[in-house]
Specification:
alpha/beta; binds NADP nicotinamide-adenine-dinucleotide phosphate; six-stranded mixed sheet; single chain; six-stranded parallel sheet; 36% helix
Length: 280
């Protein structure tokens, strides 16, 4: 679809940006809802981020996404930070207000939870502890969201143990239990949810080495990695009949708030969107 001079504009800034699936995602929605708008990928090096963000109002952009490596720095550059982003210390979605102010938020946790609810209808936060593997940037958003949704205990296992300790101390000491890396399989006992937030299992990376022998039959397994869609963790979980939820849906759902703010339509996540993004 072509755009007019009145088109609504948004985009994504990253460095590099070629791998991002956000242009296909937003492009699919723009087409589907017949919106006069464009979503533009920009390669922005770290030392250009501030200038690029400050140019948004001048260029008539309604906002943008920021991705690797800009998420943390962007949190310090925006004029206003929504509570979710302040707690996580990272921004992935920016909106421009009519007076040119930039507001940063973080929708990764929202995307994670919506994907889990859509993919595992039987899962309830209060069902039991969650075992979270990894304590990087994405994990922080997921742990904060699981805490907010009422999960009674989060067992957090990270290769570098100090990071799990730090996250526990800064988010919620009483409900986050740091687990030594070598005890991660045992920590699956009694868990209602297991989440891989590491990059292990991604195409070109080793598989996550995690035995699920102790995981209860009714627990749900989910992975943030979505290339491949069926990761080694999800394969093992499915083979022992645990419900599984792949990571692509998180990417799709995290985009909803930004699209709604910039383009004025609440978009839907469905099979057609999944196929469009996978084909891209
Ligand atoms: P990050 O901040 O770099 O964190 C990476 C995590 O992986 C850390 O916990 C790290 O442990 C762990 N790790 C890396 N290599 C490891 C190894 N060989 N053995 C054990 N642990 C290892 O990255 P991130 O931004 O959190 O992203 C993590 C993954 O989530 C990536 O695959 C990313 O693509 C995916 N993701 C998906 C979505 C989605 O929408 N589905 C959204 C965001 C991120 P150490 O602390 O010990 O290094």
């Amino acid at each position: 679809m072509s755009v007019t001079g009145a088109a609504r504009l948004a985009g994504v800034m990253g460095w590099p940006i070629g791998h991002s699936r956000s242009p296909q995602l937003h492009g699919h929605w723009l087409e589907r809802y017949g919106i006069d708008g464009a979503y533009v990928p920009s390669t922005v090096p770290p030392d250009g981020l501030e200038k690029a963000l400050r140019a948004l109002p001048l260029l008539g952009f309604r906002g943008c996404n920021v991705t690797i490596p800009h998420k943390t720095v962007a949190a310090a550059l925006v004029d206003m930070l929504e509570p979710a982003a302040a707690r996580i210390g990272a921004v992935n979605t920016i909106t421009v207000s009519p007076d040119g102010q930039l507001t940063g938020t973080n929708t990764d946790g929202f995307g994670f939870l919506e994907n889990l609810k859509q993919g595992a209808a039987g899962w309830r936060a209060e069902d039991g502890p969650a075992l979270v593997i990894g304590a990087g940037g994405a994990a922080r958003a997921i742990v904060a969201t699981l805490l907010d949704s009422g999960v009674p205990e989060i067992r957090l296992a990270n290769r570098t143990g100090e990071k799990a300790q730090e996250m526990g101390a800064s988010l919620d000491k009483s409900r986050i239990v740091p687990i030594p890396w070598n005890d991660r399989a045992a920590a699956a006992a009694g868990a209602a949810l297991v989440v891989n937030t590491t990059s292990l299992g991604m195409t070109g990376q080793p598989a996550l080495d995690l035995s699920l022998a102790e995981l209860p039959a009714k627990a749900v397994a989910t992975d943030l990695v979505y290339a491949p869609l069926t990761t080694p963790l999800l394969l093992v979980a499915a083979a022992r009949s645990n419900a599984t939820v792949d990571g692509l849906g998180m990417l799709l759902h995290q985009a909803r708030p930004g699209f709604a703010a910039w383009f004025g339509v609440e978009p839907m996540v469905d099979t057609a969107l999944r196929q469009a993004v996978l084909a891209g």
